[in-house]
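F.,

This is the one I mentioned.
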């Protein structure tokens, strides 16, 4: 018995290939911008370990000592980045006030995918319009 196997080849339309190239080209700078913003954030903010004194579903009360050793307190968004049962890490701005956490790898990937998807979808759609134009002046 002689068995012949054929490989299936998937062919992408030029429109799809162009859209994928544009998507990658648009996504990379967007992800790079998020990474640059995260680096700049680390230059102007610092992370400290705080004591959690009150914790709610949305906000937590915390205390910490500043660089001069003075006791400070504040409210931060939950959930907390726990170190132990009563300690957590938070970010402080240059003035020593609680600040949101910096952007991380998840946000960079999301920016890449979102920018790439939007640019690729727009390119794919615009390249399809060229083929579906109605003649001008014909009813």
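My design for it:
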């Amino acid at each position: 018995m002689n068995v012949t196997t054929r490989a299936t080849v998937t062919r992408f339309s030029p429109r799809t290939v162009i859209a994928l190239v544009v998507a990658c080209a648009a996504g990379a700078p967007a992800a790079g911008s998020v990474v640059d913003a995260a680096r700049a954030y680390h230059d102007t903010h610092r992370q400290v370990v705080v004591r959690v004194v009150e914790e709610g579903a949305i906000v937590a009360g915390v205390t910490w000592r500043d660089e001069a050793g003075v006791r400070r307190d504040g409210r931060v968004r939950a959930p907390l980045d726990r170190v132990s049962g009563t300690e957590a890490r938070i970010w402080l701005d240059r003035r020593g006030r609680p600040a949101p956490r910096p952007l991380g790898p998840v946000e960079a990937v999301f920016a890449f995918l979102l920018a790439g998807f939007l640019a690729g979808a727009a390119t794919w759609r615009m390249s399809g319009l060229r083929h579906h134009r109605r003649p001008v002046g014909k009813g």
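The chain has a mean pLDDT of 80.

Talk soon.
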